[in-house]
Amino acid sequence: MGRLAVLISGRGSNLQALIDAIADGRLDAEIATVISDRPGALGLDRARQAGIPTQVLPWLGEKRRVEYFQNMQRVLQEADVELVVLAGFLRILPMELVRAFPQRIINIHPSLLPAFPGLNAQRQALEYGVRITGCTVHFVDEGLDSGPIIIQKPVPVYDYDTEASLAERILAKEHEALPQAVALVLSKQWQIRGRRVVCKC
Ligand code: GAR
C-alpha cells in the first residue's frame, strides 16, 4: 500500500477525492500526512474528519523561502512517503526539494497543459477563448507546471461560462483524474520516455 503525503493550501476537495477513493477501494493507498501552508485551510478539517494526521507549516515569507522548504523537505523525509501529491498547493517548489524526490511528486492543475500554466488557469482559458480546456496531473519537475504528463481530461467551455462555472466543471474531472493518476503512479507500471509517461508493458 503506497504511503502518500498530500500538500494543500485551501478547500481540499481534491484531497477529499483521494480520501473517498481510498475509502471505497478504488485506490490502494494510505495518506500518512496532510500538510498545509495555511492554518485555516478547509482541507485540514477534511483530513481530521478522516483521522489523518495533519501538519501546518505556515508560510514564512519570501525572504525565508529557503528555510521554509528545507523544513518541509525534512518533514516529508520523516513521513517516509512513497509519493507527494500537490492537491491545490499553491506554491512553487524549489529545485532542491524536487531533486530530493525524483519522480515522486505529482501535481494537479486545472488546464490542459502546456496551455495556461500558473495561477488562474480557468480565467486564462476563458480570456483566451478556447472551446476545450480540462485538467492535468503531471510529475513535478524544476519548471512551472512543466513536468511529464500522467493523465489529462478534457472539459468543454460554453458561451455562458463564468470563471466559477468553468472551474466547477473542471473540478469534477479533477476529482476523477487525481485518484486515477495516483493509482497509476503507485502501480509502477510506467516509465518516462523523453517527456512521455508510457506503460512499461
Ligand atoms: C484545484 O482546481 C487545483 O487544480 C488548483 O487549485 C484547486 C484546488 O482545489 N491548483 C492549481 O491551480 C495549481 N496551479 P481544492 O483545494 O478544492 O483541491
Describe this structure in words.
This protein is α/β, with parallel strands linked by helices and 201 residues long. The protein folds into two domains: 1-101, Rossmann fold; 108-201, Formyl transferase, N-terminal domain (Rossmann fold), CATH 3.40.50.170. It is built from six helices and nine strands. It has helices at 13-23, 42-49, 65-79, 95-100, 121-128, 163-187; strands at 2-8, 29-36, 54-56, 83-86, 105-109, 132-139, 149-156, 190-193, 196-199. Helix 4 (95-100) links the parallel strand 4 (83-86) and strand 5 (105-109). The two termini are 21 Å apart. Bound molecules: glycinamide ribonucleotide.
Please state roughly what percent of the residues sit in beta strands, choosing from under 5%, 5-15%, 15-25%, 25-35%, 35-45% or over 45%: 25-35%
SSE topology string: EHEHEHEHEHEEHEE
Task: Identify the CATH architecture of the largest domain.
Answer: 3-Layer(aba) Sandwich
| N- to C-terminal distance | 21 Å
State the total count of DSSP E strands. Answer: 9
Structure annotation, total helices: 6
The helicity comes to 25-40%
Q: Are there runs of 5+ residues with pLDDT below 50, and where?
A: none
